Amino acid sequence: MTLTGKTRISDSSHIDSSQVLPRTTSQTQARKLRDKLLGGSLTLLAGSGLVGVTNLVYNVVTARLLGPTGFAHATAVYTLLMLASAITLSFQVVCAKYVASHETPNEKAAIFAALHLRAWVSGIALGMVLFVFNRVLMAYLNLPDPVLISLLALGAAFYIPLGVRRGYIQGVHAFGALAINFMLEGMVRLGGAYVLIRLGLGVKGAVLASVIAVVASYFSAKPSPGLHSLGSHFIPISFGEGLQAIVFFSGQVIINNFDIVLVKHFFPEFMLPCRWSDDW
User: Fold this and answer.
1) How many helices (H) and strands (E) are present in the chain, helices listed first?
2) Is 131 exposed, middle or buried (0-12, 13-18, 19+ CB in 10 A)?
3) What's the pLDDT tens digit per position in 205-229?
């Protein structure tokens, strides 16, 4: 009876030792991935907080330097760029998903190359539309100069493919680099606006600073497969996923930003200098 019990215990321990090891390895890998994602989420959260503070300082600085009318013009133009962020975020989410779901660097590079090309086509097309209809948008938003929309067109051309570069960074779990890239955009926009407005460019300086910030963020987005991705093999990417992302982000962006566009159109006298004190 006792011997049989010992034999059963010995066999059971032998079976457990052969089965527990792979489970432990799998659990360790899952825990590492979970810890990495948690740490990355906290990093992005901290970066988002700093970006929010930077945007607040930017609004205060530009409002004081430009005055109410100039600040209203700059805000309306920047809001149009935020409306275009629905396309940028869609490319970012789709790129991050596909890059994270593939293992080899060649596959990741192929995904980046395919989406990067599509993003550039979309960005250039959007920029051309804004440039062609710059006077129409100027009249609709009661802006003083069509050059403001032309500058926005240049920024939009870079802003769409920036989403792919950020999506690649997110897909390879380089969350620290992604947070730095977001903060870089905010800091360049703040510093550039202050310098250019002080140089006498006014509202054009504020808009140009936003364009420079987007371009700087695009070229500084690392890691990136770079030119090596051009020779990568093709990986099919579902159009339906991109369409779903565009629909989702379009709803969010329109709800959060389109009210500014409507106010600027229907109430051009809403923020006149006479409604503000001169020493504000």
Assistant:
1) 7, 0
2) middle
3) 999 999 999 999 999 998 888 655 5
